Amino acid sequence: MRKAILLAAAALTLPAALRAEPGLPDPAAVIAALDAHPSVQAAQARTGAARAEARALARGSHEITLSGSYVNRAVDREGHYDEYDAQLLRAVRLPGKARLDREIGAFGVAAAENRAEDVRHQTAVLLSESWWDWLGAAQEARVDRQAVENYAKLLDAVRRRVALRDAAQLEADQTEALLGSARLAAEQSQGREALARARLAAQFPTLPLPASPEPVPQPSLPEAGLAALGQLVIARSHEIAAADAQASRTDAAARRARADRVADPSLGVRLFSEREGAERGAGVLFSIPLGGGHRQALADQAEAEASAARADVTATHYAVTEMAEGDMALARYSFAAWQRAREGLDAQIAALTKLRLGHKAGEIDLADELLGERQVHDAFRAEAQARTEAMRALTRLRIDSHEIWIGEEAG
């Protein structure tokens, strides 16, 4: 008893994103599966590349150049002379350019990190979609198997009545026909379940899957409310953060291009020896490219790219806002649809109960009972589908708001 209490207390201290929830896979297994997905690993590798680029920008591309020459000169009536010269030359970044290069690198890292988080987000959505495809198909398969059992029991009862000459053979034939249809539906739903499981296992081979999934739980609206989660979709969007960082990077690159219209000078020293050392010298070297229209054109190009990036930020805000509004609407109406489906199922079950009693009392024809059985079967399937779609929509909203599986909240 004490162990159970300690386990319950430990579960309450876990972050919400790491607690096991009804209908969803173990969050630790999900995080491991996301880490192992190739798209997430590729995004993390690109982040590493961005960090390396930032280091390169901070150091600068200017390096020391060593050059030299050796010659053996022949002079008439004087002989041969060994002569050489050597020089060291290095370009120097003008004031302000190094700072801009560091800004470009830092914003590039921020953009790459947020893109990596967004890839993880999209991969989590893919896992959620595949998961609910599987659980939804399995739920429908359960309904269809139960329908087969119900029709089989009904057929046995009708056959006994036919043997006792209390029912016509036609009633047995009608029941057997419905049983055949139910078996066909069961085979089809079982096939969809197997297909959904195969797709889930192919995309996330490291995610442990039970032999048979749990039934889809009944959905419930989040305590914080749909509107609060919708606001978090926008506030925690890595897509917006990546667009902002990219816009800042292109803006810094545009300022760097404008600064580069004045080229960096190169400074160095030169040593030489001529006529076997009879003439020696040392000097200072200086060079600077004289820029023209090319550098101005590059600056104009960078400015246009910065303007495009700023427009992309606005477009990204629109897209994420649309996603948040869509998530809330889908969750709200999917939940309401499941409630109506549940009410309809309860009504169909109540009607079928009366039909069964009426048929046993001889007041209702078998055809009416068979119709009721088929309607209840359809109502169970409709409720199972609506329940799955409601859970799918609520899970999508929680993923997009970073309440589960991704982001700092999952760490």
TrEMBL record:
The identity of this protein, by name, is: TolC family protein
Q: Any signal peptide, and if so, which residues? A: 1-19
Report which superkingdom the organism of origin falls in.
Answer: Bacteria
**SUPFAM superfamilies, per the entry:** Outer membrane efflux proteins (OEP)
InterPro entries attached to this UniProt entry: MdtP/NodT-like
- State the UniProt keywords alphabetically: Signal
